[in-house]
Amino acid sequence: MSDIKLELKQLIIESLDLEDLEPEEIIDDEPLFVEGLGLDSIDALEIGLALQKQYGIKLKADSDETRQHFASINALAALVESHQA
Q: How many CB atoms lie within 10 A of CB 79?
C-alpha cells in the first residue's frame, strides 16, 4: 500500500471516528459513498475539512469534480498527489 493511500485511509478513520475499522479493510478502488464504506454527505464534509487541514486542498462541495475525487481511495490519492506536484 502506498504511503499516501495509507495516510488517506487513516485520515478517514480518524476524522470520522471509525474506530472498529482498520486501514487494510478499506479497498483502494471501492466506492467510499453509498456502497463500499457507505459514507454520506456529512462524512464528505468531514473528509473535505480534513483534506484542507492536512494537505491544504480546498474543494467545492457541490462540484461534479469533487464527487469524482471522493469516489475512492485511488481517486483521493490522485488528487493529493496532483496538489503535491
A: 21
